User: Fold this.
Amino acid sequence: MAGTEVFRGPDEVRGRLEDVGYLVDEGLAIACFLALTLHRPVFCEGDAGVGKTSLAGALAQVLDAPLIRLQCHEGIDASQALYDWDFPRQLLHLRAAEAAGITDAGRLEGELYDQRFLIERPLLQALRTQPSVLLVDEVDRADDEFEAFLLELLSEYTVTVPELGTLRAESPPVVVLTSNRTREVHDALKRRCLYHWFDHPSFARELAIVRRRLPGVTARLAEQVTALVQALRAEELLKPPGVAETIDWAEALDALGATELDAELAVATLGSVLKYREDTERARSLDLSAVLAMRGV
Assistant:
């Protein structure tokens, strides 16, 4: 578990995560405990903004370990994710060697492909950093070939650099993979992981998250913002707001000096919580005053 710390059970993991401001339910606490104990990656799937990425940051805080992030995208390959060679520095070294009269080809090749010229990308960096937390973010954006490569690496936590040999992690990093489910990730990769689906939280849980993250916001404002976001999610929106948007909205209102929310202020600040024109138009068509009254806030 990043090698050193031992947790007695899921409750301790849950408590430690809550200490750093990340609230988890029982299922996620168990998944995290097993990941730390069995050295298994956690595969986090769900809508954007529900706290998947934040889990990796919270685990890094709990373990006092660096967070190493690999942001996936279409076309990502091993050289971007694993390692590359510093060609400009290699070329300078070659010119310096030639100027010094060194002509031994074998010696030059050995010097060019030395550790000092190796550029560690996130995956290799995580394998060689003890302890570490590796976040493979939005793996659903990568292609099938990269998934297969990632599966192989996570199975053994080793990588072969032809010029240097096999590099193995002394202790596996804690690995968190996230997916917004823009496409289905292959079963083989999921089977290697502990799976957890991130749903939108209940009103009480979301309110607790807002209060924990923004202790300076008034209780009434936090309740009103949470209630409105919960109501907006019930509408047919292109992009329902996540917890991250709830926090952003409450923070924006607090920055404006608001201690409570009314319909006029809510409409004026919808840009903090909704990111599509169609969604803001849908929200403006609602009787937000009635929504607040119905919710009892």
